[in-house]
Amino acid sequence: MTVARTEDNPIRVGVLGARGRMGAEVCRAVEAAEDMEIVAMVDTGDWMFDLADAGAEVVVDFTHPDVVLDNIRFCVDHDIRCVVGTSGFDLAKLDTVRQWLEPKPELGVLVAPNFALGAVLAMRFAQMAARYYASAEIVELHHDRKADAPSGTATHTARLITAARAEAGVDPKPDATTSEVEGARGARLGDVRVHSVRLPGLVAHQEVLFGGDGETLSIRHDSFDRKGFMPGVLLGVRSILNRPGLVVGLESLLDV
Fold first, then answer.
1. Which of 99, 102, 123, 143 has its CA 20 to 30 A from that of 214?
2. 146 catalytic residue (yes or no)
3. Which of 64, 78, 93, 146 is catalytic?
4. Which of 142, 195, 205, 221 is catalytic?
5. What's 166's domain CATH number?
């Protein structure tokens, strides 16, 4: 039975990466939520055990791809659920998290490539369209402080498109390029080309381009402010209390 959390019985939340741009926004969102309270804010150089000592039930991680697995391992070892927005997860890293969770079937970890509800819908729309188009490319654009390329959102979208095509028996159209400067055609993820742009002034943006005879289809999502990610983060915190195992993607928590 799921017990609703209230102001008198709030979800105890710890934030990793609390002094970063996303982490600071998460702290403000959690503080404003009536059914949550922040019990620990941890960043580089801080004591990780503050999370466990404070009795955190859920940790939200917006840190760096180089340390995120260590952070998840710490939380799992201390029976703390995780909501992870840090990028850089490939299939091998996801499998590693699954293995860590096997001895603790009551724990859950959510790894979401994107917490913006519009981005989740755009990925779902791209997955739906993939079965009808043999040609697709992704252009993702982010701020110049982003550590990884392609983005986690682009990587997840490419996986969804590739899997949808395989299920529908659609083979990608061959690339006719015979002469190119290295990287000009982007990186290949599955059977999709992905192009990464990094510029100051951007936040998080992605366009998925499908092409067919005589037509194109563009699916684009733009995040202009980090506040746009917060409804998804709070949904993740509330949901992971009752979702054991590894959950990949916010779409798993939405009726889409």
1. 123
2. yes
3. 146
4. 142
5. 3.30.360.10
